[in-house]
Amino acid sequence: MLEVKNVNKTFGKKNVLKDVNLKVEKMSIHGLIGYNGAGKTTLLKIIAGVYAKDSGEINFCGEPLWDNEKMKQKIFYVPDDIYFRTATTMKKMAKFYEGYYPNFDMNTFNKLSEIFGLNVNAKVNGFSKGMQRQAELILGLSAKPDLLLLDESFDGLDPAKRHLTKDILLEYMAERNASVIISSHNLRELTDMCDHLALMNGNKISLDVSVQEISEQRFKVRLAFKEDVSDDELTLAGLTNIERDGKIITAKINSNAEETIKSIELLQPVLFEKIPLTLEEIFLEEMEDKSYDLKEIFS
Questions:
Q1: Torsion angle of alpha carbons 33, 37, 39, 43, nearest 10°?
Q2: pLDDT per position as a tens digit, 188-227
């Protein structure tokens, strides 16, 4: 559905995106994870047409997206920095979007507003930040896009509204055969709803995999051997982060899981347990490109 190929973007002397590649299939909820400033918002704004890319390609449903009004009417972007004019109400915004999005559904708009408990005739600037996010999401879903772009859209929502929003997004994706990209710096917000996760580290996407694939390929092992086995032997077998507690050895398998398991079995362990890594552990490991001596900071 959406294909981003070798996209670059520079602001002044700062290279914000470098050779970014991303593919989002139909009926997918794709999580975009990364620290603040990693380039998530810039990428979403380029997909939405707010920014122009410096180079690369962005295709949607097989067509170039830039300057393509027909395709842009199938995409809705909910930004992190939401702005509403002073006297604007949700109803006025709905009328505005109805003029641009051919599939805008006032019935959906009214039903969602009621579910979220928002007054469509009230000035949106009087809403809290969380309520403004809900208002913009309601407008986005009412536009019936094939691709919904959400930038930090769970920020400011209380637990009940966050749960409601997740349920609505999953239902929308299933009913409309639509796709959703959600950016967040908080992995825990996305782990129970996304089928794909992409990690932005610096100005690149360093990891883009399905949740099923990442859980199958990245895990810890707990081992014990009748005879002593050195760390060098375990490293050659494909293990990393080796830790020992008496006879019990804990280590990680990060790649080539099948080959590593075969190599470990050749060492004839008397205990061999596989323990799936949490997504948080995996992503923290991917983000670690520096080591810090904290004692030096305070010395």
A1: 90
A2: 777 778 899 998 887 889 888 888 777 677 788 999 999 8
Rounded Cα–Cα distance for residues 243 and 267 (Å): 17
Counting residues of the chain whose pLDDT is more than 90, the rounded percentage is 56
CB-based contact 151:77 (threshold 8 Å):
yes
* CATH classification for the domain delimited by 219-276, as one of 3.30.70.260, 3.30.70.360, 3.30.1360.20, 3.40.50.300: 3.30.70.260
Contacts of 245 (CB under 8 A, 6+ apart): none
pTM check: above 0.85: no
Compute CA distances 177 → 170, 171, 239, whole Å.
10, 10, 41
Structure tokens at 280: 């948080």
CA distances (Å), origin 252, targets 80, 187, 209, 226: 36, 21, 18, 21
CA distance 232 to 248: 16
